[in-house]
Amino acid sequence: MPASPVTETRSTCPYCGVGCGVIIEAQAGQITGVRGDPLHPANFGKLCTKGSTLHLTAAAEVTRQTRLLQPMQRLHRGAAPVPVSWDAALDTASNQLRQILTDHGPNALGFYLSGQLLTEDYYAFNKLVKGLLGSNNLDTNSRLCMSSAVAGYKATLGADAPPACYEDLELAQCVFLVGSNAAWAHPILFRRLEAAKAANPTMKIIVADPRRTDTASLADLYLPVAPGTDVLMFHGMLHIMLWEGWIDTAYIAAHTTGFDAVKALVRTATPERVAQECGIREQDLLQASRWFAQSPATLSLYCQGLNQSSSGTAKNAALIQLHLATGQIGKPGAGPLSLTGQPNAMGGREVGGMANLLSAHRDLANAEHRAEVAALWGVADIPAQPGKTAVEMFEAAADGEIKALWIACTNPAQSMPDQRMVQRALERAELVVVQEAFANTETCAYADILLPATTWGEKIGTVTNSERRISRVRAAVPAPGAARHDWQIAVQLAQRLEPQLRPGLPTLFPYPLQPASAGAQALWEEHRASTAGRDLDITGLSWELLDASGPQQWPMPTGATQGQARLYADGLFPTVDGKARFSATPYQPLAEPVDARYPFSLTTGRLRDQWHGMSRTGTLGRLFGHVAEPRLHMHPQDMERRGFQDGELVQVSSRRGALLVPLQADAQLSPTRLFMAMHWGSEFLSGRAADGQRLLGINALTQPAFCPTSKQPELKHTAVKLQKTQLPWTLLGMAWLPAEEVLSVRRALSALMAHFEFATCVPFSNQVPLSAAEQTRSGVLLRAAASAPPSEEVLQQIQQLLGLQGQQVIRYEDKKLQQSRALYLQYNAQGALRLEGLLLTGDTAAGTWLAELLTQELPPPQPSHLLLTQGAQPPAGAQARSPQVCSCMNVNADSITRTLGECSGSASERLAQLQTRLGCGTQCGSCIPELKRHVQATAGTPATTHA
Fold first, then answer.
1. Residue 419 within a domain
2. CA angle (216, 206, 324) in 5-degree steps
3. Distance between CA atoms of 892 and 879, rounded to whole angstroms?
4. Per-residue confidence at 883, pLDDT binned at 50, 70, 90?
5. Could you tell me which residue ranges the 4Fe-4S Mo/W bis-MGD-type domain spans (predicted)?
6. Is 241 in contact with 293 (CB distance < 8 Å)?
């Protein structure tokens, strides 16, 4: 039979808010490839490491092992879920929801959604909860990432509408990045900024961040602002602008109100005070203020460093006010542009998918807005009582106030702060429904009912990116198993509830379930109608136009031929008087300051090659090449002062929980500040606390304190302390595995982590270049430590899972010292003997070089008994490989250093030669900042200099 044809489908990447276009290749119902869409205006064909490996996360063996493929139900708490039909699952869910509604009222229901849902999914759920069930308890994980940006825009400009666009990256003369590691979190936009800087060397780039990240490598001026002091820094900049006469008095008078109050407020933000409290130099504050105010066009880019804060709204508003005070808004290259964290956080905000919003940027607190939406939906009213936001919702469930939690496309048992509280909420709720594509997220373990949903490559609808650009999402393959679209699940639930809640009345949900494209389009068109006359009016846009002409920006009202790239060019703002508002909000210190008991400030952030809780990226060993295992980053001076060693296991504790994790020296941090990636949940990093409870990953430490306006929690600062930990018994297990077994083995090993005080379990691969990904080998690593060995049964389970059985396994055991080694040797296809698996217990000092033998597939030392007897010092030929820098082409630091020794010329010429010879930085480009540091280091010049 002839091979099935290869199809190509234009769609959108499901990761960050840049909104990159992708072309999905598929054959015989299976996604086989992905590349950037050269016609998409967000990325013009470029993709980052995460986007360029999307097809690998959708491989058949990954889908079989990770996806939730049919509805499941637990007959009672603690029981394993069993398969049920869709009708049975939805009937049970609707009956229990209705009973809770009858017994306790609508406010006993809580719905928690995701910025990774499509706009149509959001719209259906919003109508279901606020229109049919009569509850405003619908919030999303966008509350954790973008709600402060929303509140900041509304407080100053009058509407949640980013006024700038991506083209402004090329047109700006000064770019101010604050609270954003765009090089890792929004890499395609950062590539564009790099290109703009190269084309216009006079462009000034300022980066303000407590960490000297890869983003700071591009900076002309780096400001190491202390955590939580951003408002004071912005007030200090405005103080200087006023003192020097760098403000635009004509713009302020014509287009704003409230400036006098802010002028009085910033009088005390003197350069001396700001420098002392913010930890930056006075001359640097002056330089930043001068460049910002006097540049012909200044663009600000900001993200979670401003948003995830107990003063998040104040931070956003204070930055936006700098643009208003200097007239840096409404013109090419200028304006405050918030970088959205998730692919459709903007779309969710557009349809009112948060507890305080209604459709088309309407406010729940506004009676006129509620009446408009009620009329649109055909219901008597929209309840006026404010809904519970994310943290409030889970606190209410933990307190027994909310009885039912419906969770869709998100993993709060990993991503929410104060994980013990979240755990209590999920355990206490009478009904927990999880609507999810992936079967093994932490939250799935608490679900009474599991509903399989579609995901990337299968979904149909729209998303909106950070520059207000709406893109189509298209299905390249059919949904696997019994998975259904999220909006279909919401509609089918609603249709079951309507006969009792609205007897005799026409349905509120007339959307056709099949074909799915028709239902998605009908939902979108209802949303479009709701935007008429609003700031995001898209009545001039059609589904057909999106299909024919590609992504479009809003607003695009009736009669417009294209969307509007920039807002407020006419100086008119969507407020009652048409003027923007200055907000005189005073600076507030951190809600949880460091003190003698908790002397360190811990911040969380992203890794370059991982996404959120890693339910998708965590399936690929190659995406662990750049950062292989969890680490707590600490300044070398702090480590030396307290007697800590690099790699040493420490206990980090906050007022809410504790975690054991290895230390890593990191000079990019300032003293007393710590950093740990947000991705490490209990699936990858866990252990057993002294009281026997399982450790819950990084968010066991973070605090639930939130901004009083935006209700966004403080995830960028937690006061913590560190202690040495004495765990003399250690374990290291690694093995190459058949591709179809890797994920199931990792899950089984993860389930055993609670037997140790510390444990981490991650996949790894042989890191071949992405162009040869079909040759990739994959395996699993388990690392653990304990005060005493676990049971022999646990060790036997680990050996069995790693395949360390049979005659090809050589062993050494010392029962008196409680030490052992088991090593699996096998001849490869070329007849060479290689190490395929290992398990070291009791003493893992030799693990470093043995792991290198395995992962680099090097020949074992001779004589072979060295494998069993050699200590920490490696035998000849087993030297450690240097860290990976380029994931796409698998280029490590040693190769880069050797090659640079053969290059000559300027820094840019040497970088170009390096890229030509090794291929690093020529694919996704995410490693370019790190490559530049290597170039500068070999030339003996600092990576970042002050102007």
1. yes
2. 145
3. 14
4. confident
5. 6-62
6. yes
User: Is the domain of 139 the same as that of 152?
Assistant: no
User: Structural domain of residue 889, as residue ranges?
Assistant: 884-939
- Report which DSSP code applies to 767: -
Write the pLDDT tens digit of every residue in 794-833.
999 999 999 998 888 999 999 888 999 999 999 988 888 9
**Are the beta carbons of 144 and 390 closer than 8 angstroms?**
yes
Q: Give the side-chain half-sphere CA count within 13 A for 492.
A: 17
- Report the distance separating Cα 715 and Cα 341, nearest Å: 14
Residue 925 in any domain: the answer is yes
pLDDT, tens digit, 9 for 90 and up, residues 686-736: 988 777 888 889 999 999 999 999 999 999 999 999 999 989 999 999 999
In sequence order, what DSSP letters do the residues of 525-591 get, joined into one string?
HHHHHHTTTSTT--TT--HHHHHHH--EESP--TT-SS--SSS-TTS--SSTTS-EE---PPP---S
Q: What is the C-alpha to C-alpha distance for residues 719 and 306, in angstroms, rounded to an integer? A: 18
193's enclosing H/E stretch is: helix 187-199
Give the separation between CA 720 and CA 598, rounded to whole angstroms: 5
Q: What is the pTM of this model?
A: 0.95
Last residue of a domain, one of 850, 878, 906: 878
Query: Do 568 and 575 touch, CB atoms closer than 8 A?
Result: no
Q: Who's near 677: CB < 8 A, 6+ residues apart?
A: 604, 605, 606, 607, 610, 627, 630, 698
Query: Which among 338, 354, 387 is the end of a domain?
Result: 338
Query: Cβ(291)–Cβ(174) under 8 Å?
Result: yes
Q: What angle do CA 790, 796, 799 make, to 5 degrees?
A: 115
Within a 10 A sphere around the Cβ of 537, how many other Cβ atoms?
A: 19
